[in-house]
Amino acid sequence: MIPSAFEYHRPADVASAVKLLAELGDDARVLAGGHSLIPMMKLRMAELEHLVDLQAVAELKAISVEDGTVSLGAMVTQHDLIDSEELFRAAPILRETALQIADPQVRYMGTIGGNVANGDPGNDMPGLMQCLGATYVLEGPEGRREVAARDFYEAAYMTDRADDEILVQVRFAATTGGYAYEKQKRKIGDYATAAAAVLIEAEGGTVTRASIAMTNVSDTPVWSEAAADALTGTTCDDAALQAAVDAMLADIDPQEDNRGPIEFKRHLAGVILQRAIARAFQRA
Amino acid sequence: MKDFDDREERVGKLKGLGCARKRVEDARFTQGKGNYVDDVKLPGMLFGDFVRSPYAHARIKSIDATAALELPGVIAVLTAEDLKPLNLHWMPTLAGDKQMVLADGKVLFQGQEVAFVVAEDRYIAADAIELVEVDYEDLPVIVDPFEALTTDVVLREDLDTSEPGAHGPRKHHNHIFLWEEGDKTATEQAIESSEVVAEEMVYYHRTHPCPLETCGCVASMDKVNGKLTLWGTFQAPHVVRTVASLLSGIAEHDIRVISPDIGGGFGNKVGVYPGYVCAIVASIVTGKPVKWIEDRMDNLMATAFARDYWMKGRISATKEGKITGLHCHVTADHGAFDACADPTKFPAGFFHICTGSYDIPVAYVGVDGVYTNKAPGGVAYRCSFRVTEAAYFIERMIEVLAIELNMDAAELRRINFIRADQFPYHSALGWEYDSGDYHTAWDKALAAVDYEGLRKEQAERVEAFKRGETRTLLGIGLTHFTEIVGAGPVKNCDILGMGMFDSCEIRIHPTGSATARLGTISQGQGHATTFGQILASEIGISSDNITIEEGDTDTAPYGLGTYGSRSTPVAGAAAAMAGRKIRAKAQMIAAYLLEVHDGDLEWDIDRFVVKGAPDRFKTMTEIAYAAYNQAIPGLEPGLEAVSYYDPPNMTYPFGAYICVMEIDVDTGEHKIRQFYALDDCGTRINPMVIEGQVHGGLTEALAIAMGQEIAYDDLGNCKTGTLMDFFLPTAVETPHYTTDHTETPSPHHPIGAKGVGESPNVGGVPAFSNAVHDAFRAFGLRQSHMPHDHWRVWKIAHDLGLHG
């Protein structure tokens, strides 16, 4: 449980960090909260020559809500997400999700940027960001570019981010209507066996808009447009719920692991989604 | 009234038996000031780490340590070839088998120790183990114990099947022993002629004690004076000293073994591991102290597991529910080596306590031990030797029989309990239960939870479920367990030939305080607190003025250590007996001081008083001073005593546990609504420590029943090698427990105490498991194997057609 030796870098701003990454090449990785990368290094599943720690980059810790747009610096911690009343008013599903990640000690360290950039299908924030329709801002030697969260994930630990880029900001529109993040896990500290993020807007008891994303039931987060479509225009009756679940099930591809066989995970994904929809609709 | 007040006050000051005294150990633990093995730092100390096998079964074609040895700071790389000249490449196990210290030609389980790298620090060692190149040729892997007994694949090529093993003939090359107890023919006849028979396979899965502190040691060979000092996480330091002497050839008086503070043991730290041997050899070779500390994965994958018993049971009864016979055959998966920690004559431990709390006229047990490509071990994980397996087996069989009889499981237990007037009770499998009053405990427990009300609520819930009004079922998990602890009488219990007595030595100091040393070693049980209380009540000195020391073989008297809830039954008894020797001499001193005959004195809390003259007395403080400051005719100076206690029998704590559980049929999640635990551990020394022990043991039981396991895939890869997958409950998963007690003293123990540390694990596992089973009883469930994690509970519901 001891990582191999590495050089530690602590740049003070994004530009320096990007420059370091360009200089150091493939042997360098950015360190955010460290709660995914450090264990992998201790297990020697990741062996890196250089760690570029972003802790000292103050500009990455900003939270802002302006004109209905929420902007989160990559180094905003899960604890910050829970703690901010401003964020709770703008997008209460953030707090609900963050509270279901690991435990307080991890949440003081773990960051939104690390969570979404790592590409671990077990992480909760990527699914939530797809549900929110978030945009990721990446900065590299060529400058900044933006990628939709829904286009970012390619496979487990494989994303659209280039090795010399840093994910610096997450941005999305403030939400209105009902929301729910429903997650089943074996114990505190575990990844989801299955989790669902649901946003619902309704008028007069009828769904006008919905967004649905699932966590840890494929090798990437799954934004299920078809599941959301199945709800739109309905009163979230049993038939609509079933149609949404069926649509979602067509989009996921869970694998067997210690959390259970595929048959269980598919069934559970359906149950979790139904519960999330019911709760979100009730709040809409 | 004044006398009464005075007596009350004096009893209070003693902080003796029955006092909820705060744990004296906690002052240092809660401040982070404990002193654990990894806190031992010696000048020039080196660090050792293992190259471990990634394969479960493979031949080793070559080991190349060249690159590792070239790394600056690497001192040595030991392999089996290096240990061979010392005859230390294999070592004897506690179970009469032998095991490889370092892989000798092949590996037999994933995580097995292949080479030992010694470096200047642990960081260099961690880098160096990556550089040792081992060329493996993989062999067929056997992880299923039933397959092991039929396959042509030979796991232990070092053994000759035609030769008997340590426990008799071996019937197959992967077979270790068949151990039998009871009357097989009579049992089979009784079952065949019975009106009702229930049959079931009950599996108690492989798990692991997983103490917070992993195993480790520091070996320091002083080449000048020829003495070896060994600090380690040892539950039995004296036995380790004896084994180290026998293995190394170093005279026993030249070896000092020290168990410092230990961060939990639960059986995991009873055995002798390759790390200890390699650290000693490395220290002898280098002349420097060598430390070896496991990481969490090493601990979970390679040190001793617990359980892994496939228990095939048949139980018979009359139509009215009176049990007529019990038959059990166990297929016991011991892994690659038989490194089970049991008394020598009991290769299946005390599994034959499996008739439990019931008066069963005839019974038979047969246990087949089997080799597989899994880690060796088979320790008692917070239970006396294999008692938790036995308790789980009988408490499941009772439930299955209740289903067969269509009878309430609480009533079935009541009909079959051994009655209070039957003690001492001789069980069909050869034990003599010392004392008990099961009916009283049972009725108290059922009343405390309003059992009838719960059953009514459960029936209503089932109806509501059938009407589609709820998706949550209610389970009522019952258990009445009988423990067997306090090993044990030297006439039939030994570890490597050492009789399982224990010891206490007391020195009373001139100013009336005392130091007592015992052969046991606390790993969190609170011995420094509770042994002081036993002594306080015996010798009339406040427990605050008694220091308890354990764990240093240079100072403590020889003892067999702490496991199997044996400390209070055996060492606690030794403490009481040594205290009585002190008191006997104190009485003579008091008689001299008061100028009366010994017989004219009586003991009164903290003093000897002249009978009929309450104003004439000598306190223990006065007596202690006199023992050192004046010549007393006919008496040696000083006030010291030693007692080596060989218990006449085991003790038999018991308890009634009831778990009320809500189960979500759709997700497999559970919620424990209520857990009631009544323990009868005989005389209660410290109610607060007992409660703490019960809480801890129940939480381990919760873990085991509801998720904790050591699981392997078909290739023998351990799938649960980290705490991500190995379930260790936190405060979030832990429910509230309600504790209660009855008090039935042991008639043969000096103070009537029976031991309690392991009861909650023994009784807790069946209580949680029975609750899961009970929730689905109305829908036809008979048996489903633990652990009852989400997907397995979901699978029960799914297979019963509850998902529509």
Automatic annotation (TrEMBL), chain A:
InterPro entries: CO_DH_flav_C, CO_DH_flav_C_dom_sf, Diverse_Substr_Oxidored, FAD-bd_PCMH, FAD-bd_PCMH-like_sf, FAD-bd_PCMH_sub1, FAD-bd_PCMH_sub2, Mopterin_DH_FAD-bd. Residues 1-177 form the FAD-binding PCMH-type domain. The keyword Oxidoreductase applies. It comes from the Bacteria. Transmembrane segments: none annotated. Keywords: FAD, Flavoprotein, Oxidoreductase. The keyword Oxidoreductase applies. SUPFAM superfamilies: CO dehydrogenase flavoprotein C-terminal domain-like, FAD-binding/transporter-associated domain-like. GO terms for molecular function: FAD binding; oxidoreductase activity. It holds the Pfam family FAD_binding_5. This is Carbon monoxide dehydrogenase, medium subunit.
Automatic annotation (TrEMBL), chain B:
It is an enzyme of class 1 (oxidoreductase). Transmembrane segments: none annotated. Gene3D superfamilies: Aldehyde oxidase/xanthine dehydrogenase, a/b hammerhead, Aldehyde oxidase/xanthine dehydrogenase, molybdopterin binding domain. Keywords: Copper, Metal-binding, Molybdenum, Oxidoreductase. Residues 737-762 are annotated as: Disordered. It catalyses: CO + a quinone + H2O = a quinol + CO2. InterPro entries: Ald_Oxase/Xan_DH_a/b, Ald_Oxase/Xan_DH_a/b_sf, Ald_Oxase/xanthine_DH-like, AldOxase/xan_DH_MoCoBD1, AldOxase/xan_DH_MoCoBD2, AldOxase/xan_DH_Mopterin-bd_sf, CO_Mo_DH_lsu. One of its GO terms (molecular function) is anaerobic carbon-monoxide dehydrogenase activity. The keyword Transcription does not apply. SMART domains: Ald_Xan_dh_C (SM01008). Its cofactor is Cu(+); Mo-molybdopterin cytosine dinucleotide. Residues 31-140 form the Aldehyde oxidase/xanthine dehydrogenase a/b hammerhead domain. SUPFAM superfamilies: CO dehydrogenase molybdoprotein N-domain-like, Molybdenum cofactor-binding domain. Its EC number is 1.2.5.3. Catalyzes the oxidation of carbon monoxide to carbon dioxide. Dimer of heterotrimers. Each heterotrimer consists of a large, a medium and a small subunit. PANTHER family: ALDEHYDE OXIDASE 1-RELATED (PTHR11908:SF132), XANTHINE DEHYDROGENASE (PTHR11908). This is Carbon monoxide dehydrogenase large chain. It comes from Citreimonas salinaria. The lineage of its organism: Bacteria, Pseudomonadati, Pseudomonadota, Alphaproteobacteria, Rhodobacterales.
